[in-house]
Amino acid sequence: VNVPLPGDGAKGASYDTITFTFHTGKAGTYTFQCFDPCGSGSAGLMGAMMTKGYMVGTLTVQ
Prior knowledge:
single chain; about 60 residues; two-stranded antiparallel ribbon
């Protein structure tokens, strides 16, 4: 799932709740991982982004 979201990188910007819907196939447990480079380093892929399991989770479809 790729959900492009508008962002406001201004310091002190307020947070919004984004709700979206998508349709799945079979029931089961699916793994997701965020690949938006928001870590440190020139490419944004260092620091927390290098940590195994960072921004990874599961989605259960019943």
